[in-house]
Amino acid sequence: MAELGSKPAEHKSALAGHASVAEELSYNASQVRFDAGRDPCECASGRASDEPGLPWVAVVTGGNRGIGLEICRQLASSGVMVVLTARDEKRGAEAVSILGSLGLSNVVFHQLDISDPSSAVRLADFVKEKFGRLDILVNNAAIAGTISEVGNPETFRQEVAGMDLVEKIGRIRKHVREPYKQAEECLRTNYHGTKAVTKALLPLLHSSSHGRIVNISSRYGLLRFFSGEELKQELNDIDNLSEQRLDELSELFLRDFKDGQLARRGWPTEGGFIAYKVSKAIMNAYSRILAKEHPSLCVNCVHPGFAQTDMRFQAGDLTVEEGARGALMMALAPKGGMTGGFLNLTEHAPFM
Ligand SMILES: NC(=O)c1ccc[n+]([C@@H]2O[C@H](COP(=O)([O-])OP(=O)(O)OC[C@H]3O[C@@H](n4cnc5c(N)ncnc54)[C@H](OP(=O)(O)O)[C@@H]3O)[C@@H](O)[C@H]2O)c1
């Protein structure tokens, strides 16, 4: 039995035959609407610096494989100085070396386990000392909160080839279990971990002339998956929601999960990936609170789509290049663009 997301990715397909970032961004530009009514084509300029000779600095969490590695590749390709982080030193160093072999020397590694707050503090010290500021934070690292019973991922991938998305997800669900231990780990990583990293790096984002936070979320974090109207409304009522309440909700969810009482309070009950859905919904709400409290920053959430990564047994419909597009658009968006928003792939969409 393997835990979802625990196997190192095969990066060859992820890194072969790329169009340039500028081409990819301009391909997407027509699909995006920015709240502030700015011309989305501005973000296709590939401009990766506010001042000549001073590249933007980005931190990407979970940068050693999957969508995170691809985000690092695309950011570095557009001239951003990338701090690729990974919890495992060896896997992180290997990822940097893969990007180096593509001619991307503007990538450095720093260890970061997002579920360990002291690790986030060490990363912040490193970024402060080396760059003095941070322009872009991509909170990408996450886990599915499940245990997989898929034996051979390649056999599984062949088994689901040709199925439509709904059938594929249904088949994946049949092969995963969601014990309490994994649910707890999921909330601790996807919500609390993301928050700890963000808090540690916030002062450095404020030292940038245009700090941006891109939280890689999921369609599964949309509030439509909650079974109770009251909870849905509470999580959507950003003006009256606090970080402290989100922490309480996270603990309440875990208690209800343990006690088999999910329906009573209105948590998601159908379709599996319950803890993952709750972790992303709470992270989305945190992201919106941050956007409100830090108007000088741009803070947005992005659903990358069902992408070919280990988390989805390489069975997704999208390549990692496609999955990284929305994140790149938000990471490279010009000053004054959307904040507190959600992108479904590259389309602005509601949190509901
Ligand atoms: N793929 C999809 O279809 C899809 C759909 C919707 C949303 N997403 C979101 O997209 C993001 C990337 O997912 P992916 O598909 O690329 O998944 P993935 O291939 O499983 O990669 C997950 C990454 O997160 C890292 N990670 C997990 N826990 C960590 C921790 N405690 N500290 C530091 N790093 C940690 C992993 O590191 P290790 O190698 O050390 O495990 C790995 O680098 C996630 O936020 C996911 O929820 C993906």
UniProtKB/TrEMBL annotation:
UniProt GO cellular component terms: membrane
MF-aspect GO terms: oxidoreductase activity
Matching InterPro entries: NAD(P)-bd_dom_sf, SDR_fam
NADP listed as a keyword: yes
Keyword list, A-Z: NADP, Oxidoreductase
SUPFAM superfamilies according to UniProt: NAD(P)-binding Rossmann-fold domains
Family statement drawn from the similarity comment of this UniProt entry: Belongs to the short-chain dehydrogenases/reductases (SDR) family.
Protein name: (+)-neomenthol dehydrogenase-like
Organism: Panicum miliaceum (Proso millet)
Taxonomic lineage of the native organism: Eukaryota, Viridiplantae, Streptophyta, Embryophyta, Tracheophyta
